[in-house]
């Protein structure tokens, strides 16, 4: 079993605030007796693509697959996710504040997309099937690599912007659309209500629909993108069990720590990690061999049946054990 828990191994600053006096016996047993491994750092979507046999293009091709899941028709075209985001200007950097904007309504999304479409014209083929998930169709594949939105949230955007031979053209376009998004009434009204304005789009997950072989894995997740990937690959989507065990799914995605990790919410992280603790406890007691992986930090721990007998392994303080190497 593969258990994906983004931000299980968060930043040192968040750990310093969240870990003191936090006892998690099951997680501590896993960290002390399990085998630490490296793991990819490109997010849940990339980890699932690899697990499901979806080949990487320049990016992991999430955009055309999730567009299909949102009721669109990707056809043979190249698509990029162009999700609405809020960039926060700091003294010496610009930070992507959180991930998606959950309180963005459909009418607001369509109005903002309409402003962009009116400015850029027919060459800017933007689709908005869902308020938080926007799509940009391109006439031909660009020479471009991007950073997944969940991996960029809460971080300085400069090293995470599109890169590649065509990156300058896309960065220039992003600067222009940010100016367009400065004035729309929708954003002015949101700011007046104390809500985050949509002041940019985050480009990521580009590609064309890939060919896949039939997949027989069982996937438990509430993440819309993860569900779209599983459905496209032919995997079986199953409910998340209250307790993971021997008859549980092949892959489970727990996102209790995602938002706290993105925004640096120590209290939220403490609350969320207790739910992760309960699932790990169930796996230690009755589950098959499993791996717990954080696809943001790139740290994973594997547990095998023989590990339960490693009584000589000393308990590792949580702060020390969770700190990425």
Describe the structure.
By secondary structure, this protein is α/β, with parallel strands linked by helices. 36% of the residues lie in helices and 18% in strands. It has 2 domains: 2-46 and 212-322, Alkaline Phosphatase, subunit A, CATH 3.40.720; 59-207, no CATH class. It contains 12 helices and 13 strands. A 7-stranded mixed sheet has the order 2-13-12-1-11-9-10, sandwiched between helices. A 4-stranded antiparallel sheet has the order 6-7-3-8, sandwiched between helices. It starts with a strand and ends with a helix. The model has no long low-confidence stretch (mean pLDDT 92).
Estimate percent helicity.
25-40%
Which second-level CATH architecture of the largest domain applies?
3-Layer(aba) Sandwich
Q: pLDDT below 50 for ≥5 consecutive residues: which ranges?
A: none
Radius of gyration: 21 Å
CATH fold call of the largest domain: Alkaline Phosphatase, subunit A
CATH superfamily of the largest domain: Alkaline Phosphatase, subunit A
**Structural class of the secondary structure composition?**
alpha/beta
Order of helices and strands: EHHEHHEEEHEEHHHEEHEEHHEEH
The CATH first-level class of the largest domain comes to: Alpha Beta
Number of helices: 12
Strand count: 13
Strand content: 15-25%
Largest sheet, strands/sense/barrel: 7 strands, mixed
Shape: globular
Task: Report, as a whole number of angstroms, the end-to-end distance.
Answer: 24 Å
Strand line-up of the largest beta sheet: 2-13-12-1-11-9-10
SSE arrangement:
Elements: E1 2-4, H1 12-18, H2 25-33, E2 35-38, H3 43-52, H4 62-69, E3 78-85, E4 87-89, E5 94-96, H5 106-120, E6 125-130, E7 133-138, H6 149-152, H7 167-180, H8 185-192, E8 200-207, E9 218-220, H9 224-232, E10 236-237, E11 251-253, H10 258-263, H11 266-286, E12 290-294, E13 299-303, H12 318-322
Parallel strand pairs: 1-11, 1-12, 9-10, 9-11
Antiparallel strand pairs: 2-13, 3-7, 3-8, 4-5, 6-7, 12-13
Helix pairs in contact: 1-11, 2-11, 3-9, 4-9
């Amino acid at each position: 079993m593969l258990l994906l828990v983004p931000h299980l191994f968060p930043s040192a600053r968040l750990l310093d605030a969240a870990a003191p006096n936090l006892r998690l016996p099951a997680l501590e047993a896993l960290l002390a007796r399990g085998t630490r491994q490296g793991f990819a750092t490109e997010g849940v979507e990339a980890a699932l693509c690899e697990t499901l046999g979806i080949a990487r293009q320049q990016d992991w091709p999430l955009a055309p697959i999730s567009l299909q899941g949102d009721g669109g028709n990707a056809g043979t075209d190249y698509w990029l996710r162009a999700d609405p985001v809020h960039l926060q200007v700091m003294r010496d950097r610009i930070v992507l504040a959180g991930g998606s904007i959950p309180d963005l309504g459909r009418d607001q999304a369509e109005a903002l997309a309409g402003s962009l479409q009116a400015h850029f014209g027919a060459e800017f083929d933007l689709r908005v099937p869902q308020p938080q998930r926007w799509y940009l169709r391109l006439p031909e594949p660009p020479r471009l690599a991007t950073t997944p939105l969940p991996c960029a949230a809460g971080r300085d955007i400069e090293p995470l912007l599109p890169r590649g031979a065509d990156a300058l053209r896309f960065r220039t376009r992003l600067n222009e659309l940010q100016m367009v998004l400065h004035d729309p009434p929708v954003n002015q009204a949101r700011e007046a209500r104390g809500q985050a304005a949509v002041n940019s789009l985050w480009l990521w997950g580009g590609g064309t629909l890939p060919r896949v072989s039939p997949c027989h894995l069982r996937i438990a997740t509430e993440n819309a993108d993860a569900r779209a990937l599983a459905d496209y690959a032919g995997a079986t989507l199953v409910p998340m069990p209250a307790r993971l065990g021997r008859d549980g799914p092949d892959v489970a995605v727990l996102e209790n720590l995602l938002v706290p990790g993105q925004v640096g919410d120590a209290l939220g992280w403490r609350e969320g990690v207790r739910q992760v603790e309960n699932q790990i406890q169930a796996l230690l007691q009755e589950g098959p061999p499993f791996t717990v992986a954080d696809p943001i930090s790139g740290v994973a721990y594997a547990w095998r049946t023989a590990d339960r007998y490693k009584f000589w392994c000393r308990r590792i303080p949580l702060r020390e054990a969770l700190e990425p190497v």
